[in-house]
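SAMPLE LOG
Freezer: B-3
Tube label: C17
Construct: single chain, 380 aa
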Amino acid sequence: MIIIGLMSGTSVDGIDAAIVNIEGQGLDLKVDLLVGQTFPYSPSLREEILQVCAGKPLSMEELSKLDNAIASEFAQAVTSIIPDDLKVDLIGSHGQTVYHQPPQKNQLGYTLQLGRGDLISYLTGINTVSNFRVADIALGGQGAPLVSKIDVCLYRHPHHHRCLQNIGGIGNATYLPSSHTPQWQEKIMGWDTGPGNVLIDLAVQELTNNQQKFDFNGEWSRQGKPCQVLVKKWLNQDFFKQKPPKSTGRELFSPHYLQQCLKDAQTYNLSSADCLATLTELTVASIADSYHRFLPSPPHEVVLAGGGSRNSYLKERLQAHLPHSRLLNSDDLGISSEFKEAIAFAILAYWHINNFPGNLPQVTGAKKEVILGQHYLSSR
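STRUCTURE (predicted):
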């Protein structure tokens, strides 16, 4: 089956579109990436999304217009990426998260992804599955991370204990014990590790008056020296100590959060490069700290994906924190690190129409497995 997976993450860089061919059943799938491309948001739409993520209030009319605008750009990505001679059977669209609230005591969580699937289906003429997180949340789950079951499908290994570490705006991890470990599937874990690129990106934008959007390859951070005293202080934040299941987003690691970090940096007279190096150190230290806190032993391999996997300075610092683990990029295993999450939502759409549950309750905290997503049939 030919499926297009669509994903825009917490970095709000643009829409990742992946055309994949999927065959098989359940966890035993053959997944081939045929085409992958990223379509940047228009600058005005990206800025509006970021403002909403930062807490800008909207009227219902404004919300509906934003929902439609995002769906229209997702649909345009679909029509732009499909070769003339290819018939696509299905779309799996994550949409754009603008708000995420993990469940509280005696209260369900809430999550909102804009980019309505019914409009994508209408505009493209292709059946579309979207709104994947809400079914898990309705069962008491976090609704995140949802990639963990895909990680089981694509990355399990008979001998190696692996951590699949995505570093997008927010970092998330899946721990996969060796599949020869007794009852290995019951020992799978997953959680959001904390900030990925979000604070680094926000800092670069502030320090350059929005002339730069991110620290390319960590070149600016590499010129500085991380302040370990500050990193240790920041790691005392409650989220890092919280045991999985757990998830987070821009609601916590926000522009306001960054301002407090920058204020702390001034106390230590850090240069701009020192500040970026220290924020990068927070990302890698939070990943490593979570492994030390929550895993039975260091993983044999850490497989990286997402934008952070292309930051050589960040990777060097992560290796320094995880000296006993081998760092790999997902590409090394034949799965695109750039389009991994778009591929994941293509798989979740495939599982939906095949009535196969897409969540892992021990990862999300949901009461049971459930079919994820809402299916919109094309009217064409």
